[in-house]
Every structure is written in C-alpha cells, then in structure tokens.
C-alpha cells in the first residue's frame, strides 16, 4: 500500500474523524463495523467512498451524519464534537448542517414532491410560503419544476432520487452525504445523479461525500477513500479545493402547530378506513357517556322540579311518630306515638320563626265525571292566608286557583283520563266532578303509614274544576273543605287527631331550628331541603354509575387507539426514520403522532356528542308524553358537550402517548434499516 504524498491540509477541516470505532451486538456476538478510522475532509471536497458490501461504508456515513454515535473515537464536524450534542442537538445538526441522500430515496409516499423537498424546512419552522418557493426553486434546479405536485409513486427512480437531492438541499446545508445514491438506478440516471452531486461541491462549495461500490465514479471524485472490513485502506486525494464560501446555516424556529396538524391530517386521510374505525370507537364511548349522563341529569332535574313543585323550601312537614324520618323511609316509631292534636297546632304556632301551620293530609276518593269513574288522591291546598308565600301553590298548567270552598285543581293526566281521548284536558275546566271520600291518610312527606276510613258517612261532594296542575296524578281540595272533613274520621269517644302538619317558616334559616323545636316536642319532621339533598345524592350515584359505563366504553376505545397507533408506529418506522434523518426532534415526532391521535379523538368526540344527543332526544321524544316528567328527560348542558369532547380527545391522546413516545425514541438508523 503506497502512501500518498501528504496533501496540504486546510486549517479547519469540515469533518474530522479520529480513531472511530463502531461495534454492534448481534445475536450475542460483537460485530466490528468500524475499526479505528481516522481522516479529515476539507470544505468543498467531492469525496467518493468505495468498498465492498459490509465494509462499514454506511456506518461511516451515519456517524458523520449524526444519525448514530460511535462506540469509540470522535467525530468532529464544523468544529463541534458530535459526542457533545444531545439528541435534540444532533437533530438540529441533521436539520441544518447535513443533507442525506439514500439508496432507496426514502421519500414520504403521502406527500407531493414539493412537500417532500420542503419537509426539512417545515421541521425548521419556516413559513409555508417560503417553504413552497424554496422547494420549487430546488425542484427547478434538479430539473423537475414540472413534477412539483406529483407523489413519489408517480415518479421514475431517477426523478425520485433528484427529489431526494433537492430535499437534502432544502436547508442549504454545507454537507451532503449520499449512501449508494445510484444503487437503485439505471446507469444513465445514476450518472446524472453523480453529476448533480458533484455540482453541489464544485458549484456550491458544499462538502459532498458519496458512498458507492461503482468503480466508474472514482475518476469523477476529488478524493477516493477505500474502506474494507471497517478500516480505511486507501486515501487518494486528487484535488484540494480552495477554501470556498460556506453556505450559512438555516435559522430554526419551532415547527408550526398548523403544519404539524396538516401533516397529521394527511397521515390520517392516507389510511382513512382505519382512522374512521378508531374514531368510531371513541365516538361510541363518548356517545354512551353523553347519553347516560344527559339522561341522569334530565331525570334528576325533573324530579327536583317535581319536589320543589310540592312547596317552598321553607316547609317543615310534621308527622306523629317519634324520631326522625326521611321521605323514602317512613319514620320508624321509637316508643309510643305522640298524636297530633289541635293543641299541637297551637304550640307549634308559638315557636319563633313559624309563619303558618296547616293540616297536611290526603283523601283517597272515588270520582265520577259524566260516565267515567276514577280514583283521585286529593291533597289540601294551603289556607288562603298563606297563598302569598312564594311557590306555595302548585304550578298551574291551565285555569286558575279558585277561591271557593268547592273549587278544586286536578292534574292534567287525571283530567285527560276523565275527558277521554280526543278531547283536550282543559275542556274539563269549569265542569263539576262528583267525589266520594273513601279514606284519609298523611300528606306528602308526613310518614303516611296509617290509613283511616271515615267513622261517619260522608255524602258525595259536588266540586268544580277551576284549574289544572302539571304535578302527576293528584288533585287539590280547598283548605276549608278539607279541614271540615277531618272530624268525620274521629272514632267515637276519642279526641281529634291529624295524620300530619305542614309548617311554613319565616325564612330558610329558620327551617332547622323550627324542625328541631318540633322534634323536641316528640314529633318527627321532614324538610324539603332534606328531601332535595337525598334525591340529589341518589341521582349523583346513578349518574356516576351510568357515566362509568360510558367511561369503560371509552377506555376500551382508547385501548383500541393505542393498539392501532402501535401498529402504525411499526408500519411507519421508515417514515419516522426519514423524519428523524431530515432533522425532526423527538418532540416533533411525538407531537405528530399525538396530533393524529388528538384529531381522531376530537373528531370521534364530536361525532359521539352528536350521536349521544341524537339518541337522547329520541328517547326524550318517545318518553316525554308517557311519563309525568315536568321537564325534558334528556338534557345536554354545555359542560356535558365539553366533557364529551375533552374525554374523546383526552383518552385518544393518552392512548397514543406510549406509541408516540416509542416512535419519538426510535434511532433513525434502526428505523431506516431494510429488514
Ligand atoms: P456497507 O454499507 O459498507 O455495506 P455497513 O456499514 O452497512 O456496510 O455494515 C458494516 C457491518 O456492520 C456489516 O457487517 C453489517 O452487517 C454490520 N451492521 C451494520 N449495521 C448494523 C446494526 N444496526 N446491527 C448489527 N450489525 C450491523
Ligand atoms: Mg451500506
């Protein structure tokens, strides 16, 4: 091996390798891909590396290109030791200082020629207009001005490789590295590519290093390096260029969010079937969640409305039994029952904070209207002296609250039953109803365990219907009439007692003290405040359970997304490798995958909310008229829409996070390796 006369080495080589080794572990044994390689390359040189397959040429190029790190020795490029760079630093180096050209082109199949060329600029955060004009200028330079909008599949090999060269030039890098760029080309195209690469050195003053095993290209080079078995065996320098003007490095900004989303979107549309499937999984999960929570809150709002329709929140209901009772659990009698007597009413009237006290009871009756019979439970309206208490009167659906002794209110459903189908319930207003009282029991929220039949005969009453209420299945008697009937239920030889009382307190703050005072007297009390609390508590349990079912559906959908994304990462190794080779940072790659997951999740969320709302409204429409619900059965508050969208997007992004980080962590050389 004859040593060449020492060439004049310029003061600052562009690339300097010092004793570089690269070992791979494969199947338990060490492969020495490079074994102590040392050389300097000055700026502007057109270098050809020749050698047999497996000799370490690609490894050498990868180390110079910052695609991989040496096991030993140093690679210094443009005065910087690549060893000292972080992975983001290496990405920036690949983005700004080197352009890579591969044997198999490695263009992204979903992007046009122009977009492929502009990819390094996109990763450098260059604005769209500038990217486009620069990409087109470069395509013109490689003779493909008319192919800007072709996809790689529509190009010949020679054209594809010229697009790849244009991409390598996008960031105007001082170094171009090409790994067997003619390996997949016919000899004419190969010749053209080599000429093109040579011009990048001789016209532009870039440092161009081309790996090949084609001896024909050796005469074109300024210098030929021969590599075999991981070692530099010959270094032929034919020309040392004048120190050329080096192209200035590209300034980098962050990748624009919009550009990332556009890329993510194009990746999704390229595999639209799969995107739709995963999106559908999310949509179904979100729909279930929106539907269940919407139904739960609709029902709750309806029940709460029904309860508040029963009277003001300043109400305390009193029943005879001792201890404490809730509306859903009749008071359990502890010790002897203390009856409510007229004296009790007098005593409660004297408690501070009490605004009014009246009987709370229900009459079970048979009612007759024309030839129709029905049973009606009549509650008592409050006495007229308390009518000015806000919301003490039931909510009217039609007519008015009459002031006469015989005037009554009926629920719309009863009125409908009495007038029969084909007539509006309100046609019953002003008509007479014949009512026979059968029994008396406690009113709402007053225990209500004892039912007493009358002890005297009560003649049928003729009553006038003056108004309709929305509350389900009840009627209201005028207070004086209702009170006048109570003596008819007293057994002979006993004093007057009542099944329950309603106490109205002066304000909300008095509810608890008054209830406590009444309990001290030995009675049990229930307040609407407590009732509402109990209802809200039980509904929040129901809603949580229903929401959880939707949530499980969503988690399953999320797992699906995770699996699909993991598959996508495997399938798109090549694409990830290309992105990394042209300078994508870890976070660019992970953001790209997360954007895809986010787009699918958000779109699935939108569809899911629409689906859930649609089904909810259908259920609402179907059930609204068959139940006594006051309001809608399904509600879709803005927060629920937000929750649906957030969950759809969130689950998808979380499920995509692991595959995305896996993609981001891939080593570019591994990702690009043909297997
Ligand atoms: P060339 O490009 O000259 O054909 P390479 O640089 O690709 O050679 O490979 C040099 C040696 O290192 C070969 O024996 C090859 O099998 C081995 N090699 C390259 N890359 C890897 C890798 N990622 N893992 C294990 N062995 C590798
Ligand atoms: Mg190779």
Automatic annotation (TrEMBL):
Q: Where is the ABC transporter domain?
A: 15-254
Stretches that traverse the bilayer: 272-295, 545-570, 591-613, 633-658
Q: What subcellular locations does the record give?
A: Cell inner membrane
State any GO CC term.
Answer: plasma membrane
Q: What is its main location?
A: membrane
Q: What is its EC number?
A: 3.6.3.28
PROSITE patterns according to UniProt: ABC_TRANSPORTER_1, ABC_TRANSPORTER_2
Protein keywords: ATP-binding, Cell inner membrane, Cell membrane, Hydrolase, Membrane, Nucleotide-binding, Transmembrane, Transmembrane helix, Transport
Give the source's domain of life in one word. Bacteria
Has the keyword Transmembrane been applied to this entry?
yes
Its placement in the membrane is given as: Multi-pass membrane protein
Q: Listed GO molecular functions?
A: ATP binding; ATP hydrolysis activity; transmembrane transporter activity
Query: Does Lyase show up as a keyword for this record?
Result: no
**Chain coiled-coil ranges:** none
Report the sequence similarity comment from the record: Belongs to the ABC transporter superfamily. Macrolide exporter (TC 3.A.1.122) family.
Task: Name it.
Answer: Phosphonate-transporting ATPase
The scientific name of the source species is Sulfobacillus acidophilus (strain ATCC 700253 / DSM 10332 / NAL)
